[in-house]
Fold this sequence. Notes:
The complex is a heterodimer of chains A (181) and B (157). Chain A is mainly alpha-helical and 181 residues long. In chain A, 83% of the residues lie in helices and 0% in strands. Chain B contains seven helices and no strands. Chain B is mainly alpha-helical and 157 residues long. The interface between A and B is large, with 76 and 72 residues.
Amino acid sequence: MNSLIKGVNRYKVFIVLVLINLIIFIINPDLGNKSAKITWSNTKVMVSIIPPVFILFGLLDVWVKRETMVKYLGEGSGFKGVILALFLGSAAAGPLYAAFPVAIILLKKGSRLFNVLIMLGAWSTTKIPLLLFELSVMGLKFTIIRLFLNLFGIIVIAYFTERILSKTEKQEIYNIAFNQK
Amino acid sequence: MTIALYIVAFSALFASFIKSKQKTILSLKKAWKAFENILPQLFSILVIIGIILAILTPEQISVLMGNESGWFGVILAATIGSITLIPAFVAFPLASALLESGAGFMQIAAFISTLMMVGVVTSPVEIKYFGKKATIIRNVLALTFSLFVAFVMAVLM
């Protein structure tokens, strides 16, 4: 019973939207019909693309060993650190709020803030399975242009964020990390 | 394209299974959990797309977010992208549906880029970990950069 309530709760927005569509159908059958048809055809496309994307999500998440990479992300890690940080973020699964605990772990283990910011950027914008999904939905050209621009952007944003912060402000971020359980 | 995606995924799954049965099962469990997590939002957005595209004509979408809407459309798209919290999974179908119905690449690029990089709703969480200053700097830079992405897309697409 409890799980049923929880299930309904999670889908409440969806249920309300379906009801809205139903009301539209009653008021204006043509419009309601058209809307349902568009929804159905998009659903078919999504269902056909999504399974392999999530399989890759799961595989990358299980096989990429975060712990062994952490030691290459410290001060003076240079170019290698940037590449690894990009890879760490891109191989992750899960929404951005799941990235913050990972960022805390990296900071605690002495990763450079610049690299942690890069990891966060990659987590939100260049996840590998998501790129494959983007490729099939948005096309090759759009995906490639966006990928290269964003890789560049992630690094630039991380660089300036780190540069603008003073030494004490940076230390404060590390202190916050160490105070997390 | 989709077939290639299936080939890649199943080859990887097969290789993983040969290396470790346990890890493969764990990865499938994780995959299912991640999928199940976005399902309510995915279903919702699919219905929203249906309703929006049924009500708005391509001409109307074009006025709001089409190529002729110019920077007004870009700002509109960037504002929506910065405030809303839509997973990219759900955003791409929406973006592609809007593109097919008259939206411009420049505006859609602004929407997707801000959606991914700028987080107004998630900023309290970000502040908790990184402090106010770092959060503001990062988000302002990300917003500026998203407008740059929109500009480049407009030139190249």
